[in-house]
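Design review, sub-item: ligand-bound model
Attendees: FS, YL, KQ
YL presented the inputs for the adenosine-5'-diphosphate complex:
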Amino acid sequence: MNWYSKLKQADFPLPSFDYKDPNDEDRLRGGFHSVDSDMTEEDAKKQEQKHPKLTYEGSGSYGVAFVNEGNMVIKYTTHYSEFASANHILILQEQLGGRIPGFVKVIDTEKLKNDVFAIVMEKLEPLNNKEQCFVKAVRTGAYSEFENDPFFLEVSTKYEKMLFDIDRSGGDPWDAHRYNIGKLPNGQYVMFDLGGLFE
Ligand SMILES: Nc1ncnc2c1ncn2[C@@H]1O[C@H](COP(=O)(O)OP(=O)(O)O)[C@@H](O)[C@H]1O
Ligand SMILES: [Mg+2]
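KQ shared the predicted structure:
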């Protein structure tokens, strides 16, 4: 059974591949294929009961993300390390009594069958085009043309603060690219894709 019929059966809302970025099919397809082949029908139905109203938000190499009625993101992933990192963040949140700077707030995690994992987290605002461009420039070092742009300085400062915060908590932000970062209501940047952060 494929992902579409599985989700249809469980009455999930079906995403369309061109929903967010029609030019980036590879980025959109990877996570669908892995979750598709590994999530059991039973789990798809259970998840549908647990989260009856989901809308598609996006997908990447390992996962697919939906938003629930409470405006939280439910991400399904086949990447064990994301589940491990999310659990680690849950423990840190408990120990420190709240949000851990640099990371999305994790609400809950669940291990499903066949090494599929569900992570419930707060929904973040994506970076806008200019912020994405500037984050890429910082990461590649190709920013000489923006060096005197005050908004570039703001973005690079926020991005470096995020990296610093992650590092301070013992995380390794090697995958902190522009599509794995979101914004809190106060404008701060945090990472929401947690793969490989604590290995
Ligand atoms: N907490 C979140 N808030 C807002 N959007 C999110 C969140 N988590 C995931 N997304 C959306 O889902 C997409 C895929 O999530 P991501 O964690 O990057 O998956 P992958 O591990 O497959 O790369 C993101 O690019 C983003 O559009
Ligand atoms: Mg990602």
